[in-house]
Every structure is written in C-alpha cells, then in structure tokens.
Amino acid sequence: MGNPGVVVAALLAALSVCLLSVPAAAQLRRDYYANTCPNVENIVRGVVQTKFRQTFVTVPATLRLFFHDCFVEGCDASVMVASSGSNTAEKDHPDNLSLAGDGFDTVIKAKAAVDAVPQCRNKVSCADILALATRDVVALSGGPSYAVELGRLDGLRSTASSVNGKLPQPTFNLNQLTSMFAANGLSRTDMIALSAAHTLGFSHCNKFAKRIYSFSSSNPVDPTLNRTYATQLQAMCPRNVDPRIAIDMDPVTPRTFDNVYFKNLQQGLGLFTSDQVLHTDARSRPTVNAWAKNTAAFERAFVTAMTKLGRVGVKTGSQGNIRTLCDVLG
Q1: How many alpha carbons lie under 13 Å from residue 115 in its C-beta half-sphere?
Q2: CA torsion, points 128, 134, 140, 143, in degrees to nearest 10?
Q3: pLDDT per 10-residue tile (average), the chain, 330 residues
Q4: 76 labelled as ligand-binding?
Q5: Do 112 and 181 fall within a single domain?
Q6: Is 72 annotated in some ligand binding site?
Q7: The CATH number of the domain where 138 resides is what?
Q8: Which of 20, 71, 251, 298 is exposed most, by the fewest CB atoms within 10 A?
C-alpha cells in the first residue's frame, strides 16, 4: 500500500477541484426557467429575428459581445454596463470600443420584451439573454442551433481595468492564444473552433495595417498573407485612410456562418496574424485542414466550445443578481 498521507492529500486535492466546479455546474441547466419564464427562448428569438431583419450587423455584434463578456469577468453581462460618474466600465476599455452597438441593442430589447411578460418580470438575467441571443444569431446566419445552459446571474461590477490583458489580440501567436484560452478552461481545439467566429463581421484597417505595410524591414508585407489578398487590402486600406474603415473578416462568405473560414486560412486569407497562425503553425494546422473538409465536425466542435465558454465565471448566490436594466448595475 502507498503512503496513507499521500493518498489522503490526493483525495483532498481532488475533492477541492470538484467543489470549485460545483456551484456553476449546479446552477446552469437547460430548463432553468421552465417554471418562472417558460417562453423565454421564444421571446428572445423573436427580438433577435426582428433585429436581424433590420441589420445583419446584429449577428457579429452579438457574437463578439458574448465572447468579450465571458473572457473578462465571466459570462455575467458586465460588458453591457454603461460608465457612470467616476467609474469607467468595461465597454469603454480600448479593446471594447469596436463592439458594435447592435449587439448591446439586441440584448436590451430582448430584456425589455422578456420583462414585459408579467410572469417573467425580473426573473431572467441579462447574461442569460445574451447567451440565448448569441445562439440565435449563429443559427440565423447559417450556423448550428444548440441547447443553451441557463441560470447565470448578472455581475455586480464593471471596470475598464478588469479588461487589461484578458482579450486576445490580432497579433497573437499560437502559444499566446492557447495560454489565454486555457486560462478560461478552454482547450486549443476550443480556441480554433471559436476563432471561426471571424467567418462573420468586420475589422478596422488599423488592426492589421502592419501586416500589409510594415511587417519587417526585409518584408513590408507579411509573407504568410496571400499576395493578391494583400494587394486588395492595401487598396481598401491605403496608408492615410481613416483607420476605422471596416473590412470583412471573411472575404469569401462574410454573411454566412460556415467553415469557409478554415478554407480561407489554407489560402493565406486570414485577416489577422492570430487567424493565419492557426494554419501556419504545424500544431494547429491539422485541425484547420480537417474542419475545412468537414462542416459537421467543425459545427460539433463549435457547439462544444460555445457551451464551455458559456460556463466561464458564472456568478451564483451573492456574487450576482438580476438587473432591471442591462446597462445599469443594481
């Protein structure tokens, strides 16, 4: 028999890990609102569909909002909060200034629609509404629909300083990406799947200008960038252009959630370094190639990753509440 002290220590360590994961796991379940607001999913979906008909920007805006929310303070809608008085909130951090207003508007309108139903009033968190709306925009743009775990509470604080170092940057390499996602309980496979959200939406010229003008002294253009694509980007983003001009992240199917993102990487059409590195790095290339060929496999991996993302930093008990207004703490 082994050392009893070692065995006991190992058991205690395992138990502590289990206990740490219990609150969020116990809190989240698909039927969380079955008794308090049974029609919540249909209410949110109706608002999302209306917004989608008004502007496609609703799709990438909502998807990015969910990601930026979960990676900073956990999935608690803290990114929704407006700055007030001396407090600069998350949404006003430089890394969040590019979040399109349509994502915020979608959640705010969905919350109002839910609370307009007497049975549901003040029963459903903004964090859960954001999670549901994200699933709905993915499905509306051609991606998979999936069951959403519910039961998140809204966070009690929102500060710009909390964003520092929490969000991946366009210049990240594979090690940096892997490390940041791992800090949120997400694997490299999850990271590659979630990166495919860049099959939708747009970026601004200043986020990738270095790749097309000043990559290195010997190579002004990033050699991993498709030559023709680089020339097109230079035409759309000349040196003195307004850096806020928007460029589609996916030059082939920018309005469809699909695996073309991975096919683009095979052709050197990744807009960010953090996109293209998924194919240039031999450690992630096999996954990119596999999903470029197999839509079903990619969609399964994306649903798994989104479910895991939705569990990050879930607030329970006194850690959170249900806000009356998504952009106001309290």
Answers
A1: 16
A2: -120
A3: 47 45 66 97 98 98 98 97 95 96 98 98 98 98 98 97 97 98 98 98 94 95 98 95 91 98 98 98 98 98 98 95 96
A4: yes
A5: no
A6: yes
A7: 1.10.520.10
A8: 20
